[in-house]
Design brief:
The protein has about 375 residues and is of the alpha/beta class. It has helices at about 5-10, 50-60, 75-80, 100-110, 125-130, 155-160, 175-180, 215-225, 230-240, 245-265, 285-290, 305-315, 345-350, 365-370, and strands at about 65-70, 90-95, 115-120, 135-140, 165-170, 190, 205-210, 270-275, 295-300, 320, 330, 355-360. Bound molecules: pyridoxal-5'-phosphate.
Length: about 375
């Protein structure tokens, strides 16, 4: 079965009780037990819920995993995956990860004795160099955020395996449609399902997927124990969004390429960061490890004023945080996704006040380009 078919037919698309083509919203907190000596499949919705079950099995299928866990947000998914680590553990993380992930590592997990070293993961030797005796995990994001840097995932996994590290990747930007990291040897895949998986800017959700039994039981312990589960209504919204994942990813990527090529030709644009461009330093690596480049890109304008003018002028692009929805979004990392990163650190990373990030939606690409044209 081809991937596009699997998105719709993975064994979890029908309600087993009624045959309904849309899994019902099992809006229940608790379940009657007919036989106290033989408890039913569902007991209490924090521990398990039929709508969430269908979603989790679908997510596992899409990532070629065996176990998936749905969380109340992408950050709940990131935090719950990291919470399988122990006090004293050390993490090597990519330096330009999502601002919220940076914040939770530096300001929350640090309190519990889990430390992190951030490195530029475009070079594998940087990973190797940061590994110490207590290092337990490698946390990747590829493409990174917001500069779309690319990590050689299989190469990073090889380094991690030599040191018996657990490998984790935030696969939000690519979505499982373009990249299935478990097939490259990654242990744990994380998503902000708020973005491409949901796709309609109507739900906050997260997911963690693995094919390792031991890691799965640890993650389930956190999901059930910590309790940041996704509610049944939001599970249904995600199931519904996922059905069009392929159509959205293909069309949004097509427009993203058009927008990126147009931006490159503008005299007032000084840099375009999009792995789909042939001169992007990670272009070859993405081609070897993924089936697409995604629909998120960023670019720099010649002046800060120009960046601000664009944000004031646009009518079709929403100026907002988030990405991955059917509607195009323009965001300003310094004030939005990366506001949590200290200014000095941001500047070191190249996240400047001239930088704009775009998430290309389903509108006509020509209209989107016209709307950006401030030249
Ligand atoms: C949005 C995002 C998150 C956080 O997800 P929420 O659903 O907002 O909690 C994590 N990682 C990446 C790459 C994101 O874009």
């Amino acid at each position: 079965m081809k991937y596009g078919t699997k998105i719709l037919h993975n064994g979890n698309e029908l309600d087993p009780h009624t045959g309904a083509l849309s899994i019902p919203v099992y809006q229940a907190s608790t379940f009657h037990q007919h036989d106290i000596d033989n408890l039913g499949k569902y007991g209490y919705s924090r521990s398990g819920n039929p709508t969430r079950d269908a979603l989790e099995k679908t997510l596992a299928a899409l990532e070629n995993g065996t176990h998936a866990f749905a969380f109340s947000s992408g950050m709940a998914a990131v935090s719950s995956a990291l919470a399988i680590l122990e006090q004293g553990d050390h993490i090597v993380a990519a330096e330009d990860i999502y601002g919220g992930s940076y914040r939770i590592l530096t300001e929350f997990f640090r309190k519990f004795g889990i430390s992190t070293t951030f490195v530029d993961m475009t070079r594998l030797e940087n990973i190797e160099r940061a590994i110490g005796p207590n290092t337990r995990a490698l946390f990747m994001e590829s493409p990174s955020n917001p500069l779309l840097k690319i990590t050689d995932i299989a190469g990073a996994v090889e380094v991690a395996r030599k040191h018996a590290l657990i490998t984790m990747i935030d696969n939000t930007f690519m979505s499982p449609y373009f990249l299935q990291p478990l097939d490259l040897g990654v242990d744990i895949v994380i998503h902000s399902a708020t973005k491409f998986l949901g796709g309609h800017s109507d739900v906050i959700a997260g997911a963690v997927i693995t094919r390792d039994e031991d890691l799965a039981s640890k993650i389930y312990f956190v999901q059930n124990g910590f309790g940041a589960v996704l509610g049944p209504q939001d599970c249904w919204l995600l199931l519904r969004g996922i059905k069009t994942l392929r159509a959205r990813m293909v069309m949004q990527q097509e427009s993203a390429i058009e927008v990126a090529l147009w931006l490159k030709k503008q005299s007032w644009v000084t840099n375009v960061y999009y792995p789909g461009l042939e001169d992007h330093p990670g272009h070859g690596i993405v081609k070897s490890q993924a089936t697409g480049f995604g629909a998120v890109l960023s670019f720099e304008t010649d002046t800060v004023q120009r960046a601000k003018d664009i944000m004031k002028r646009v009518r079709l692009w929403s100026v907002a945080v988030s990405l991955g929805g059917v509607e195009s979004i323009l965001s300003y990392p310094v004030k939005m996704s990366h506001a949590a990163v200290p200014q000095a650190e941001r500047e070191r990373l190249g996240i400047t006040e001239n930088l704009i990030r775009l998430s290309v939606g389903l509108e006509d690409a020509g209209d989107l380009i016209e709307d950006l044209n401030v030249g």
